[in-house]
């Protein structure tokens, strides 16, 4: 239930995304990396889409981030449906926001952030006061990669069976207009990862491609999501 208290916490958290007066120890320059140290032991990644669950994490929680970018697709003469060829996203570190939110209510508050951030131009979010944890992209071999600066780097692959449709009610796109939210995922180390070896993409907003190709083209779909890193 969206109580007045929860509404207040959401507003406070969203305000925190744009604050320019965060404590000095909670801020960094534009370089990717870890920020203020927050005890993450009490925080639990959301695993259920309402009907099915992602597998539990094996390691310790290292970071919670808010990703904003694009899912990248292609349509050609041999593909009746768009094919995912990559993704690019900036990853904001949520550590400075977590002390504002009671641990027991963190899930309900954090799930509001991806659809909120999706409505901002992806090119301006690095101007937010929130520190940049790192970047997500696909490498030259098509491997999902997360460069997290001093926290580490992960090269991932899907964990078998860990691919769930987004929950009913997930934001389909910017301003609530779009095809749908991309799936929730668990990725594990594909080899060569350092510092982190599991990542969950949850609370997705936007990013889904149309069911059919209309013409030969490469195109991008705007998206946002929470990324939880373990190692």
* Shape by Cα distribution: globular
Give the neighbour order of strands across the main sheet: 1-2-3-4-5-6-7-8
The major β-sheet equals:
8 strands, antiparallel, barrel
Radius of gyration: 17 Å
Count, helices: 3
The overall pLDDT average reads: 86
Percent range for helical residues?
Answer: 10-25%
Number of strands: 8
Low-confidence stretches: 19-32
| Beta-strand share of residues | 25-35%
**Could you spell the SSE succession in H and E letters?**
HEEHHEEEEEE
The end-to-end span amounts to 33 Å
* Sheet/helix structural class: mainly beta
Describe the structure.
There is one protein chain. The chain is mainly beta and 231 residues long. 11% of the residues lie in helices and 34% in strands. It has an eight-stranded antiparallel barrel. Mean pLDDT is 86; it is low at 19-32.
Ordered list of secondary-structure elements with their pairings:
Elements: H1 4-18, E1 61-75, E2 83-93, H2 106-110, H3 113-118, E3 132-138, E4 144-147, E5 153-164, E6 184-189, E7 198-206, E8 217-230
Antiparallel strand pairs: 1-2, 1-8, 2-3, 3-4, 4-5, 5-6, 6-7, 7-8
